[in-house]
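Quick one: structure for this chain?
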Amino acid sequence: MISIKKLIERNAEELFRAALNAYLSALNVMGQSGVEACPSLGSTLQQNLLRLQAALSAEATPVLLEETGKEAEADIRQWGSDAAGYFKQRAGEVKELMVILARTAELTGERDQRYSRQFHEFTGRLEAMADLHDLVLIRDSLVKSAIDLRHCAEAMAEESQKSLDQLRQDVSVYQARLDDAERLAGQDPLTGLDNRRRVEASIEYRIGQRKPFSILMLDLNEFKKVNDTCGHLAADELLKQFSTELKSGFRATDVVGRWGGDEFIVVLDAGRQAADAHTQRISRWVFGDYTIRVGDGSRKVPVSAAIGAAEWQPGDSLRSLLDRADAAMYQDKRTVAKRA
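Got it. Here's what it folds into:
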């Protein structure tokens, strides 16, 4: 009878691959769950986990698996801490808005009570006129009451306007903070491009409009080599430079985003022919040598990318469109690899 130990040794590679696939799947699920739980911070976690997935997919060893496990644990712990702080901040903002509204309501109530007393005094003065018999006294009392009433109404209107202006100012400041938070929630923190969440929302919107559009997916060639030889900081600088050049190559109405790791995506309000023209333009204008800082010096790094284009067709879902573009991108990568 074959012992369990010998069976494990005989199938060690198969077991390792099965465990690796399960681990990669877990990383993917954790990244997606992070985005769903806290979109503004989840994209960073997802991108970090996608980077670890890419590293393991390219070269999987037990040592590397252990290292990525530690990195994944650190990323998840950091995300948990940041998410807790984020939700605490948002709760504080809601509390602040409630305080603003409560303060305004309190001031309005105090003002109304103050003027209510004055109006009550006017009523008493008018009732007292019923006991007057001298027309001159009645006239003087009416004139004084009318003047006081007018001043009271003017003061009340002025205070109401001031309260309204203050409320508008407070709400405007709060709205600006909410707008900034919304902008940051849809922005990739490293490159400043739209993040995956916002890109997907843009695609879904266009699908709902049922107007022609296309997407381009880009995957930088040999980026891992830059990461390994130049370090993470230099690699991040390269991503930022490439993002700036890529963004400048498109119209303001086009959506340019970082899909994750060294992958990028562009949403074009145009058909496949225009998308192919943009692909050629990217090859001419965006690809080429980039200078990055490495230690105390600098280094030129050639940058290119595999590109896959897909045009939306009636009946396409977000997933089917992305799958077509992704397949075209990897076909382009295989073609380049064969030529090399």
